[in-house]
Amino acid sequence: MKDLSNAWAIREEWLPENASRGDLLEFLLHYSILAPSSYNTQPWHFRFSRNGVDLLADRSRSLESIDPEDRELIISCGSALGNLDVAAEHFGLGLQVALFPDHSESDLLAHVELGRPVDPGIDVTLMFGAITKRRNHLLEFFENPIPEELLDLLVDMARREGVWLRFVSGDATRAEIVGLIEQADRVQWANPGFRRELARWVHPNRKWAVDGLSGAALGMGEFVSRAAPFIVRRFDLGRRRAAHDRDVAWHAPVLAVLGSDGDSESDWIAAGRAVSKILLRARAEDVAASFLNQPLEIPEMRSQVSDRMQQSGFPQVILRLGFGVDVSPSPCRSMSDLLLPPRNSARQVH
After folding, report:
1. Distances (CA, A) of 120 to 90, 125, 150
2. Which of 79, 75, 43, 44 has the alpha carbon at shortest distance from 61?
3. How many CA atoms within 13 Å lie on the side-chain side of 152?
């Protein structure tokens, strides 16, 4: 039985036979919405338009204190586009993607149409199978090393998307990056505006939610999590958060920075598409990941990440990678919440 109320339960056999191009695009979007997003805000909308579907930024989910330029918001939307790339290719379909097709509509990030048939390779098959299994893994990882050949593949995948992926090597460099993460935690939590904004997206552990973070994501037990929004809003938990992030970052088998040579909205989209595919390919090998982007959310610290990595360009994402226990998926909005009415009264994709 189809359970469309649970976005993570989507199955490829649910694709209708003889589906129209419009129905096929809508089916593929069920995989797109399972992409990672900043603080699990899921800041995207979709709208059927002309011969395809539009990807739009949902600015009502902007993080004004954490992400004032909407950089992470657009990276998140790029990740949704990356998932869509993988899902379409798995079903033997290429995509034609036009970025920023109408500059009079600032929220319109991409227009997507189905392209020519393609032959999916083994990597696409593996990535597609990982879409419903990908998780944001906030627990500690095992000590098992990640195979070098997989790391090389992830670097190559980033390059193909027009961005770069660099691994933090050496204890001295790792100590510097971990130190920046700790410092950023303390700076952010000391800011009442950050705490108010974060509190909007934090929910008690057992509360039914379709977005945001549970209290458990911040290390809160069941009882304490019932007051999670109040606690986050009123108390500076920076020292506690910094200690936790120091431990998980220092002991992660791999700490990595993904970045781009430029820092335009197109670069942010490219970074998001790359992050999506890298996390899926890693998950296909049972490698989990989580984000430690705090230093990148403070302008004066973002350049320090590049300096410590001795890497020119603009860091966009900090990742930790490793093997760990299975965790539950993040809450996810349903497709019905994410589809905007088409510009005209009837869908135009046939």
Report:
1. 6, 7, 19
2. 43
3. 3
Q: Which of 289, 67, 295, 260 lies closest to 176, judged by CA?
A: 295
List Cα–Cα distances, 36 to 30, 108, 115, 278, 296, in angstroms: 13, 20, 25, 11, 17
Distance CA 105, CA 108 (A): 6
pTM score? 0.95
Q: What angle in degrees, to the nearest 10, is found between the helix axes of 71-90 and 265-283?
A: 50
> In the structure encoding, which two tokens stand for residue 329, read together?
């998926």
Summarised one tens digit per residue, pLDDT across range 97-137 is 999 999 999 999 999 999 999 999 999 999 999 999 999 99
Torsional class of 77: left (φ above 0), alpha (ψ -120 to 50), beta (otherwise): alpha
Q: How far is CA 103 from CA 106, 109, 267, 335, in A?
A: 6, 9, 17, 26
Instruction: Please name the residue that has the structure tokens 């990148």.
Output: 296
